[in-house]
């Protein structure tokens, strides 16, 4: 079968015949795993370089934590956190820069300064976000989230989580295409941990081929998340690395094309070996 392509702006075209690693760079005080870690712009840039050296294919910059209970951030504050970094990394141009935001007024200037991907955890619910995508040539990540970050973990209920998530992603992708976003630009993401219990997350990973069957590149972000802590009885997110690598390899074998991770070196190695064995 021919590999899928993913077009991310004028300069980046991925042929998805091997798994891509998206390295996470949160410039927030309160992200659940790396919050407060990259306090100065210089520290953040250096960390991005270290992820690229370790095998990252994409850097995903985020300025708003979406963990339950995170403090709200104004667009101005989010822009102040992410824009200088996006501009600098995009100008260097080694790998595409993704902007992880739900807000059109943040996504728009980031695209203007060279972001190649818009990663929206709310699945392009806001028509203004659809406009930003349609008016540009960037890649988009459409993620499934049940409800809103503040309340999404309060007893999420599905009849069939995989069928419902797949239907949502298929509909959102179709809506983006009707708005003028080319098929080759769209990737989908089941949204591990976004309005899902541990059992829902496991079911989504187990039945990932049903999401892959939609025919779009599939991104999975399981890194260091609570369900891994629950399986391992591990509260410390820094001690969930090996469990996260296990989830990334499982996702790849289920057909994921891109994994979004905190631990690039560890994940890159595991995926390179698993991918070589798969052939
Ligand atoms: N998960 C988080 C943030 N953005 N984007 C996609 N496409 N998929 C994900 O699973 C995903 C995401 C949450 O993780 P993190 O950025 O580490 O934490 P926080 O939201 O606290 O900043």
Q: Topology of this protein?
A:
Blueprint: E1 5-8, E2 12-15, E3 20-26, H1 41-53, E4 58-62, H2 75-92, E5 97-100, H3 104-112, E6 117-120, H4 127-134, E7 139-143, H5 161-178, E8 186-189, H6 198-206, H7 208-212, E9 219-220, H8 226-232, H9 241-253, E10 258-261, H10 264-278
Parallel strand pairs: 3-4, 3-10, 4-5, 5-6, 6-7, 7-8, 9-10
Antiparallel strand pairs: 1-2
Helix pairs in contact: 1-2, 2-3, 3-4, 6-8, 9-10
The protein binds 6-hydroxymethylpterin-diphosphate.
Give helix % range. 40-55%
The H/E string reads EEEHEHEHEHEHEHHEHHEH
Spatial gap, N to C terminus:
14 Å
CATH fold topology: TIM Barrel
Summarize the structure.
With about 280 residues, this protein is α/β, with parallel strands linked by helices. It has helices spanning about 40-55, 75-90, 105-110, 125-135, 160-180, 200-205, 210, 225-230, 240-255, 265-279, and strands spanning about 5-10, 10-15, 20-25, 60, 95-100, 115-120, 140-145, 185-190, 220, 260. The mean pLDDT is about 95.
Task: List the defining traits of the structure above.
279 residues, alpha/beta, TIM Barrel, 8-stranded parallel sheet, two-stranded antiparallel ribbon, 10 helices, binds 6-hydroxymethylpterin-diphosphate
